[in-house]
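Q: What would this chain look like folded?
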Amino acid sequence: MTKTNPGRFFEDYHVGQVIRHAVPRTVSGGERALYHALYPARHALHSSDAFALACGLDRAPLDDLITFHTVFGKTVPDVSLNAVANLGYAEGRWLHPVYPGDTLTARSEVIGLKQNSNGKSGVVWVRTTGSNQHGRDVLSYVRWVMVRKRDADAPAPDTVIPELADVVRAEDLIIPAGLNFATYDFELAGEAHRWGDYAVGEVIDHVDGVTLEEAEHMMATRLWQNTAKVHFDATNREDGRRLIYGGHVISLARALSFNGLANAQVIVGLNGGAHANPCFAGDTVRAWTEVLDKAETGAPGVGAIRLRLVATKGAAGALKDEDGKYLPEVLLDLDYWALMPA
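A: My prediction, written as structure tokens:
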């Protein structure tokens, strides 16, 4: 009997199944330092204890995507070790800030299954929740993954496709307790643009580009304890190339968006997302953002802004062709809510 874990295949899932993921992880300032070494991340609230204190928090929380990557990484051995691709996200909410010293765990519930027409794989929908050492939920999101079958002849499960909201309602966003932008220091934050300066429909070209390196994306994937084979094993794909973890592209695009959105300090909602095309080392990634919506909040001086963040190898503003398909140069299409001074 083998003692190694081959990972779950499509036929190993059933709707209602709850998976408690190993291994708990205590995060520290080391994660912040490595995150800021891997990406040009410099939002002030996550960089400075003094800035965070002036905004009503006890100290600087870790970058919101550190929370996402850490929780996501916990799920990979159980959900996507045998994945062909991670397909999308929905109904994501950051529920409580994560600080250095917190210990994060994750659990997932299978909420949908659909076998593909080729009979060799299927799509699995899971709702994942991350919690801290106090049992307080810090993050919740849905994602769906295409997973290989162990046996192509295994019977297909009943198809269940979950009904998911197109957008997290503004009134359901969780504002970190105490957050207050009434005396926000725009000079220290890096830009003067506030919530009222952005218009729905506005497109922002973030200008800068970063050429991806093989070593950096593999370091990032190891940092988040993501064990998906396609990111490490060059023999796992017919083209002999390592696929770059989609979260690496998300964080890179978010960091690039600082130029034009320096005051979009806190990510609080993930409405949807698609990894439109595969990404490989050597690709040069740029980013642009479209403002989709705005909403007031009950927190002093805090406004919510809904943003479409696009990572691309092409030009700003270009997204889909006449048939509604993503252009081949588009890597990521991410729809999220952020908080900024109003």
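The longest strand covers residues 103-115.
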